[in-house]
Amino acid sequence: MLFLKLFLTFFKIGICTFGGGYAMLPLIQAEVEKNGWLDETTLLDLLAVSESTPGPIAVNLSTFVGGRLGGVPGSLCATVGVVLPSFIVILLVLRFLQKFRNSRAVTGAMRGLSPAVVGLIAAALLRVAATVFFPAGVSAAAVTAPAFWCALGIFFAAAVPAFKKCHPILILLLSAGLGVAAGYAFGLPV
Question: pTM score, two decimals?
Answer without folding.
Answer: 0.59
